[in-house]
Amino acid sequence: MTTSRPRAVIAGAGAVCGLGRNPDAMLAAIVAGRSAIGAIGGWDTGDWRVTIAAEITDFNARELVDDRKLHKFIRRTDFFGIYAGDRAAAEAGFDAHRVSLDSAAAATFADRSGCYVGSGGGAFENQYDYLPLLAEAHGELPAFGAKLAETVNPMWLLRTLPNNVLCHVGIRNRLKGSNACITNHSVGGSLAVIEAAEALAQGEADRALAIGHETPIEPQNVLYYDRCGLLAADALRPFDQARSGSVFGEGAGALALETPASLASRGGVARGEVLGGGHVCEAKGLLAIRDDGDGTARAIELALADAGLDRGDVAMIVAHGNGTPQSDASEARAILRVFGTTCPPVTAFKWAIGHLIAAAGIVEATIALAALRAKVVPGIATLTELDPACAGLPVSRETRTVAGDIALVLCRGFAGTDAALVVRALGS
Amino acid sequence: MTGRRRVAITGIGLVTPVGNDAASTWRAVCAGTSGAAPIASFDASGFPTRIAAEVKGFDPAVITAPNKLVKYANRSHRFALAAAEEAMRDAAIAPTPGDSERWGCAVGTGMMGVAFGDLAALQRHSAQAGELDAHALLDDDTAADPVAFCRSQSTAGVALLTRRFGIRGYATSVHTACASGGQALGTALKLIRRGAADRVLAGGFDSMVNPVGLAGFCLLSAVSSDNDTPERASRPFDATRNGFVLGEGAGFLVLEEWSSARARGAHVYAELAGDGNSLSSYRITDSPPDGDGPIQSMRAALADAGAHPEDIDYINAHGTSTGMNDRSESAAIRAVFGGDANRVSVSSTKSTMGHLIAAAGAVEIAICALAIERATMPVNANYRVPDPDCDLNLVVGEARRQPVRMTLSNSFGFGGSNSCVALRHPDHVDAP
Question: In B, which residues are within 8 Å of A416 by CB distance?
Answer without folding.
Answer: 159, 162
